[in-house]
Amino acid sequence: MIATEKFVQDCFDRFNILCFNGELPQIPIEMGRARKCLGKFHFCVRRKFLGKKEYYGFKIIITKAVDIPETELEDIVIHEMIHYYIAHKNINDSSPHGTVFKAIMNSINQKFGRHISIRYRINPDADCLAVDDLNTSCNKTYLLIVTTFSEGQCGVTVCAKSKVFELYRLIPRYYKTKKMELFLSNDPFFDRYPRSNTPKIYKITQADLQSHLPGALSLELVRNVIRPKSH
Ligand SMILES: [Zn+2]
Fold first, then answer.
1. N or C: which terminus of the chain has fewer CB atoms within 10 Å of its end residue's CB?
2. pTM for this prediction
3. If you measure from the C-alpha of residue 134 to the centroid of ligand 1, how many angstroms do you get, rounded to a whole number?
């Protein structure tokens, strides 16, 4: 079926009571036109005192451009509602589909016989790099190549999204690299570095890396696809 706002709203109300004890306040529901991204949970983040984060501007976007079986659509809506639950309760998860997300998803699947899943979709050409359905468009994201040099020092390159494959290939040709890692971060700390189109690396201290990388999503390049790193 093609999703309608009424269908999504009905799902939201039904599963809010069934799976979330009715704890989720109403939020805007929008119908999207994306063909690759079936659902999105949209939110904004602001930093508060002592580095605490506050989430706001919630909305759920479900595509109306793709014909999807009804139960699968329901599972997509519930998937977005799990993101909403975690943000609404201000729960810290290890990544967008981290331990907390998976625990809630598995418990709902088991209790209610659902088939909610995690599908990663990354489109490096999009205005906003959306990891699967999770959209942080209010918050700038930074695609980082972190290089460890053979002498042990580290450097960072904030890549222009369209250049990441090229830069990943070029950096080892210009520098003596020991290790290269790729991350997606929304930490405003990385705003100090220009977005690179060329293989330029800025030195960064271990202390800065340790305080600004833990929240980032670890990515890998597999052929010509960027995807969250499988551990
Ligand atoms: Zn998701």
1. C
2. 0.58
3. 5
